[in-house]
Amino acid sequence: MRYFSSFSASHSLQYIYTAVTPGINFPEFTAVGLVDGEQIDYYDSEIRKMILKTEWMEKIDADDPDYWNRNTQNLQRAQDVFKVDVRALMQRFNQTDGVHTVQWMYGCELHDDGTRRGYMQYGYDGEDFISLDLNTETWTAANPKAVITKQKWEKTNEAKLRTAYLEHTCTEWLEKYVEYSRSTLKRKVHAEVSLFQNDSSSQVVCHATGFFPKAVMISWQKNGEDLHEDVELRETLPNQDGTFQKRSVLTVSPEELKKNKYTCVVQHSGLEREMKLSTSTISISVFCSSKISTGDSVEVF
């Protein structure tokens, strides 16, 4: 299932709800909230309460003392609905056993130019199922089995309500969270960019870690020209301290690596200029690195 992302986003708020069939070593229902990719809260069907996952979220208690209790109750209701959803979709797909999942993902973004974007989508067993089109305020069925859900939901004004939430309420909460987290999200940190190989015949890895905000670009050049072939850009991952890491992998033969100059180029908003590291100085299992100073209601199917 495709996840919503944007390199140009200034700030983002995202929620991911997951329901699974019972009987496996995993909670039947989980919910996770993230601000700029950093987890802010967590709920599951075993603990049955929403808990904070980052210290700066404690600041919300002064403004909204009932915040955690209210959202816990909302998620307990969502848990009950999603349990019904799993059974309903299993029946619709003629499935009587096995492990199956229902996911609900939604969120919003605030960009530097003031524009706002939102999204809402559902998935079943890792595949797109149905999503909200904010422009038309209608539902888009990504699977023939979702047409029934589309017809059911479009008999109500739920799409209009969800659109209003994403375009207004969601971004209002995002602005509040960003203000709470400003001391963390705006801090200056020192990140490290490294080039390494495990052995002389292995891939060359360009690894950036410790950067914030999340948006970063890692690219390769061959003899000064942009290189797009034999390059794999990996997913951006969070670090425990709220910063991020990302790597790009170059697949090239030892002969080509010796004959040509390959350069990893890292671009980030915290850099005054792009960072370049050349493979001409790489050693096996030795990191070639440089520090970077970075700148500041649920529906039944």
From TrEMBL:
Pfam families: C1-set (PF07654), MHC_I (PF00129). This is Ig-like domain-containing protein. GO terms for cellular component: external side of plasma membrane; extracellular space. GO terms for biological process: immune response. Residues 175-278 form the Ig-like domain. The keyword Cell membrane does not apply. The keyword Glycoprotein applies. Belongs to the MHC class I family. InterPro entries: Ig-like_dom, Ig-like_dom_sf, Ig-like_fold, Ig/MHC_CS, Ig_C1-set, MHC_class-I_related, MHC_I-like_Ag-recog, MHC_I-like_Ag-recog_sf. Keywords: Glycoprotein, Immunoglobulin domain. It comes from the Eukaryota. CDD domains: IgC1_MHC_I_alpha3 (cd07698). It comes from Pygocentrus nattereri (Red-bellied piranha).
